[in-house]
Amino acid sequence: MKRLSLVFILIILITLYADACKCVGTYYTRQAFKVAKVIVSVKVLKVLSSIDPKDTMILKNGDTLISEPVYGYSKLLLITKTYKGKLSNDTIIIDGDKSNCELYLKVGHSYIIYADLNDGSLISSKCSRSGLLENHPDINFLERKLKRRKKNET
User: Fold this and answer.
1) Neighbour tally for 74: CB within 10 Å
2) What CATH number did the domain enclosing 130 receive?
3) Where are the beta strands (DSSP E) in the chain?
4) CA angle 39, 42, 47 (to 5 degrees)
5) Considering its fold, how many domains does the chain have in total?
6) How far apart are CA 23 and CA 36, in angstroms?
7) Does position 88 have pLDDT exceeding 50, yes or no?
8) Is 90 strand, coil or helix?
């Protein structure tokens, strides 16, 4: 009976952490590089706007309070390096979509983003190879590609 109870508790704990995002096939580094329209390293500067204004609370001093994790919000990104694609500004917006596959970006952190462009904003998801810049598995590959591209441009 104790063993059955323990198994039941473990199942409940595992399902509490379950991620409802289902990625249909993930790309290897080279495939992801070919498919992405834009690959950049960025630093998240700030949260801009919510898809649903009820998700924010305006404090008495006028500040906006947004609870973490921030899903469904547009975020302003500082582009620190462009590995693929042409962008005209050093900042860009990534739009939130409030889906289970939305890429979670935390203010003040740096990321590698594999993305598409839509009306000047980035579109990405957990299903891309996007992730924290620190110790990103693709960084050496991306740096080699960038070096080759710069060499060919000169």
Assistant:
1) 18
2) 2.40.50.120
3) 38-50, 57-58, 64-65, 73-84, 91-94, 110-118, 121-123, 131-132
4) 120
5) 1
6) 16
7) yes
8) coil
Domain membership flag for residue 43: yes
Q: C-alpha distances in angstroms, 113 versus 3, 9, 33, 124, 153?
A: 45, 37, 11, 7, 23
Could you tell me which residues come within 8 angstroms of residue 127 by beta carbon, excluding any fewer than 6 positions away? 21, 23, 24, 26, 101
Is 137:26 a contact under the CB 8 Å cutoff?
A: no
Q: What is the pLDDT of residues 44-56, one digit of tens each?
A: 998 886 545 555 5
**Would you say residue 106 has pLDDT above 80?**
yes
AA identity, residue 54? K
pTM: 0.73
> How far, in Å, CA of 154 to CA of 133, rounded?
28
Residue 47 located in a structural domain = yes
Distance CA 154, CA 152 (A): 6
